[in-house]
Amino acid sequence: MRAAYQYKLRPTKQQAENIDKWLSMLCAQYNYLLADRFNWYEQNRCSINACPLVCHLPELRDNPDYYSQKKTLPNLKKTHPHYGEIYSQVLQDIVKRVKVTFDRFLKGDSNGKRSGRPRFKSRDRYRTFTYPQMKDGCLQGNLISLPMLGKIKVVLHRAIPDGFKIKTASVTKKESSGYYLTLSLEDATVPTIKPDFNSESITGVDVGLKEFLTTADGETVSIPQHYRKAQKRLRVIQKRVSRRKKGSKRRQKTIKQLGKQHKKVADKRKDFHFKTANNLLKKYDVIAVEDLNVKGLSRSKLAKSVLDAGWSSFLSILTNKAEKAGLLVIPVKASGTSQDCSSCGVKVPKKLHERWHDCPNCGCSLDRDHNAAINIKNRAVGHSVLKAKSLLSSSRIVLEAYTVCEASV
């Protein structure tokens, strides 16, 4: 079982300077390796027999893959001796990061989905480096020993569970709040939780902008609107930033204040999402949700409200927590959930401002979001996993009845 814990780091002034220096050098090396890959890609992307008649064919060279780029690191330390100050495995991890980024651009991920063209990173956007391996006992009390950085104080707001070993450690610099340590933990003795849920304990969830969500039982969770409540304060600080001279220390200080304010909003939203997901999973074993195109909705007139609600983040948290608890979250088709009647299935057209559902066919009358949540639940009932679960339970009942009858005979 794998888990990730994040802690606040309290480095000394010298350690903070070393971390910043490492990030600057690693950013330069990342951009260099990425440029090397792009150089090869631009020269060799077209086969020779497909070139135009008048063209310049450069000297072809081998593809700069993971291993060939890794072999360049010893020579890098000779030509640029200051790179010897960086721990070797941290430097090697940069090569791996470039490989993953470029492979996703050319080949796509495990699902075949390709990402966009990788970007070169500016120094203020390169914030993290990773130790791929950590020794046992590297964390002693509230001090963690990081190779070539020394022992750094950690704010251990929660203890590491017994039996878990630290596999990797990542150091991240956040301009608004300082330095953080992310530990990847593993315990091979803990088995993966297999889904074990009651298919009868199911509900549908309709997310919205009037209420954050409405369940099929009619329960609602009000929308907090964290960003809109913080807009007044954000507007004041943003004006200060725009009035400061570019490149000045006062402008940098004000940008840091703005980042802290945005972080407060993000933290409040994240806390709300986790608490809402926990409350749902305590009540239900199976939760049906809409398979929404949040990216498309964020380009509409309701963009600010949609992004403030954070539906995509909430659904991701809900799915992950359900998987860890052995429960189930089922995405269903979103089209027509608000228009169709949950009682008779007849389509009842409604505009966005019409918040009540009145069916002329069967007389069903209830809130629009409540009606949509029931439709989502009804669509999830036909899910193959739930069907298999119900068939399994029914076969057990038949088998038990047969056994009882056979015993009585």
Backbone CA Rg: 28 Å
Q: Which strand order spans the largest sheet, edge to edge or round the barrel?
A: 2-6-7-1-5-4-3
Indicate the overall shape.
globular
Counting DSSP H or I runs of 4 or more residues, the number of helices is: 11
First and last CA, distance: 49 Å
Helix content: 40-55%
Taken as a percent bin, the fraction of beta residues is: 15-25%
Structural class by sheet pairing and helices: alpha+beta
Main sheet properties: 7 strands, antiparallel
Q: Show unreliable segments.
A: 394-409
How many structural domains are formed by the residues? 2
Q: How many distinct beta strands? A: 14
Query: N-to-C SSE series?
Result: EHHHHEEEEEEEEEHHEHHHEEEHH
Mean pLDDT, all residues: 86
What is the topology?
Elements: E1 2-10, H1 13-44, H2 66-70, H3 73-79, H4 88-106, E2 128-131, E3 139-140, E4 143-146, E5 150-155, E6 165-174, E7 178-186, E8 202-207, E9 211-215, E10 220-222, H5 226-243, H6 249-283, E11 286-290, H7 294-297, H8 303-309, H9 311-325, E12 328-332, E13 356-358, E14 365-367, H10 368-381, H11 384-408
Parallel strand pairs: 8-11, 11-12
Antiparallel strand pairs: 1-5, 1-7, 2-6, 3-4, 4-5, 6-7, 8-9, 9-10, 13-14
Helix pairs in contact: 1-4, 5-6, 6-9
Domain Probable transposase IS891/IS1136/IS1341: 190-300
Pfam families: Cas12f1-like_TNB (PF07282), HTH_OrfB_IS605 (PF12323), OrfB_IS605 (PF01385)
Domain Cas12f1-like TNB: 311-376
